[in-house]
Give the backbone structure.
Amino acid sequence: MYAIKRELKLNNKQKSFFAGCAGFSRFVYNHGLSLLKATWDIPEISGSDSKRLDGIKKVFTNITKKQEEYGWTNKYSSRIYQNAFRDLKKAFSRWRNPQSKANLPRFKKKKHHCSFTVDSSNGKVLVKEGKQIKIPTLGTFKLKEAIPDNCVSQTFTISREAGKWYVSFAVSACKIPEMKHSQKRVGIDLGVKTFATLSDGNTFETPSSIKKAKTKLGKIQWRNRNKVHSNRRSGISASKNAIKYYQKLRKKHKRISNIREDFLQKTTTLLAKTYQHILIEDLNVKGMMANHKLSDALSSLGLYRFRELLSYKQECFGFLLTIVDRWFPSSKTCSVCGNIQDMPLQQRVYRCQNCGQVMDRDFNASKNLESWNADGLSVNPERSRRVNACGLEGAVSLG
Ligand SMILES: [Zn+2]
């Protein structure tokens, strides 16, 4: 976790707007503080400071803000006063904490306190590298110094110090600088034969230790095929050996899942560190589950887990993950000429009937994924639907 702080390049209109925001924040903070102190003298009101402040906030939202004389508060983002109340709560819990030396919170003065905080109500947002920043609920602003890398954050504090305006936010990662030398885009095809085929030619194979462990497991299962654990309906209880066997089985399964988890963690971290933009295919869950053998192979490979890990590591490493629409015919399309032809699952090599290109099936698919764009590289427009950029895209588009 580290913080990024940058000076903002604002025009006069923006400056006075931000001063207004800070004033609003200060007003709410002081308003909450005075009311909370007032409640201490009323014996009928009980409960912690935090509970009292919740009550005060409710009154502020539902009654105070709606009164005519407070109409000016509606000019500003509601996230400002939400955060002002949050700060006030924190200040009181610090003061109440016997181990901390914090003083009783005092009223904020215009002279000393010119800052406010906003956050994104729907999770973390992508902060793009460069000399601009998009702040949730406020808009896009210019920066004096560029943000070095893409990163993700949720809460942004804007403050004025010695006449200059700054924005600061926390980034929950320590490895982002490694991204610098890799502005690469890559398509990844996931498969049963080769776990992951990358459009730059790299591949990731499922570790052989998993295959070995699985063979062992199969043997044990075969040898113990007649053991019955227990069956309450037919009144059979498990023998001691059966109990032992099932314990052993659980251990073996756990071992396999541990190896797989380790492999998936390492692979996704490596990918996250190396590439700026990763495009993978949406896994057609229903369609694949309909194919019994395939569904088994896929679930044991951990493809879903792979995607889950990638999408969660976006936050730590700041790359972008795009889930390509599952109707996009990545396997059937020629990555050279765009020709579409049928590709049965067992056909491992793509031989283009149009341009004669011969290519590994998975590599061809990964190439297509890499060059995919929201408008659909797909030649058949009916089949190319809109993107699904894995949550982030939705969260990024702020007002
Ligand atoms: Zn072709």
The radius of gyration is 29 Å. Residues 180-212+256-396 form one domain. The pocket of zinc ion is lined by residues 334, 336-337, 339, 352, 354-355, 357 (CB under 6 Å).
